[in-house]
Design a protein that fits this description.
This protein is α/β, with parallel strands linked by helices. The chain has one domain (about 5-15, about 20-175, about 185-215): Decaprenyl diphosphate synthase-like (Undecaprenyl pyrophosphate synthetase, 3-Layer(aba) Sandwich), CATH 3.40.1180.10. The protein contains 8 helices and 6 strands, in the order βααβααβαβααββα. The chain has helices at about 15-20, 25-45, 65-80, 85-90, 105-115, 135-145, 155-160, 205-220; strands spanning about 5-10, 50-60, 90-95, 125-130, 170-175, 195. The protein has a 6-stranded parallel sheet with strand order 3-4-2-1-5-6, sandwiched between helices. Helix 1 crosses helix 2 and helix 2 packs parallel to helix 3 (about 65-80). Bound molecules: farnesyl diphosphate. Farnesyl diphosphate binds near residues 37, 61 and 128.
């Protein structure tokens, strides 16, 4: 049996294409994406992954049509608390990553409540990246350090000023739907992450896809700049 990545990041791409193929509105793709997200979290739990980060809404996603942005914000406000029994039953601790203070008040409140209501769960930590951007994350950390009077910025200082600095760096980043780019996701922590790109659209993902990305991860030799 190979090694299980401690932390996996998911770029959940292809919701819109999934909906288009079915002549459905793009929003139906996001709802189906939420269902897939739950299956993927369960798959990660079965495999023994301890941390997942899910790219739910980027700092650039505000450029999308208003009805799509509103729909996603509605999902964050209604579905997060609505799914609380699922999170608690499966030992899922929710955290947010990114600036949630500018989300609509009901979404921000619901997320805050869900983070509090799951804080004692310990099977897996699930970071929801919301209004998240990797460049923004680095700038925010540097600004926090400056405000504290730190005189020299080092990689360790930047990391110590992240939203959840105790969450370890990501080992594996998986992206669905065929695109091969990072799209401003986990720029700092992906320094030595492995990348797996899959053609399957996000709403079609399930537990088995977690098994296959971990198997691909296990075919890689990680050297972190050293020698194997
Ligand atoms: C990218 O696919 C997907 C998103 C920007 C949204 C992802 C959000 C979810 C899966 C819902 C999460 C919900 C909760 C409550 C945590 P795309 O729309 O860019 O797909 P496309 O490239 O095919 O258009």
């Amino acid at each position: 049996m190979g090694e299980v990545p401690q932390h996996i990041g998911f770029i959940m791409d292809g919701n819109g294409r999934w909906a288009k193929k079915r002549f459905l509105p793009r929003t139906a793709g996001h709802l189906a994406g939420l269902k897939a997200l739950k299956k993927v979290i369960l798959g990660c739990i079965s495999e023994g992954v301890r941390y997942v980060t899910l790219y739910c809404f980027s700092t650039e996603n505000w450029k999308r049509p208003k009805d799509e942005v509103d729909y996603l914000m509605g999902l964050f406000s209604e579905k997060i608390m609505g799914e609380l029994p699922f999170y608690n039953k499966n030992g899922i601790r929710l955290l947010t990553l990114g600036d949630t203070s500018v989300l609509p008040a009901d979404a921000a409140e619901s997320l805050e409540q869900a983070v509090r209501a799951t804080e004692h769960n310990s099977t897996i930590v699930c970071q929801l990246a919301l209004n998240y951007g990797g460049q923004d994350e680095i700038c925010k950390a540097v600004n926090r350090a400056i405000r504290e009077g730190v005189e020299e910025i080092t990689p360790a200082v930047i990391r110590a000023h992240f939203d959840n600095p105790w969450v370890p760096p990501v080992d594996l980043i998986a992206r669905s739907a065929g695109e091969k780019r990072l799209s401003n996701f986990l720029l700092f922590d992906s320094a030595y992450a492995e990348f797996v790109f899959c053609d399957k659209l996000w709403p079609d993902w399930c537990e088995d896809d977690v098994v296959s990305i971990i198997s691909e991860y296990n075919s890689r030799v990680r050297k972190f700049g050293g020698l194997a």
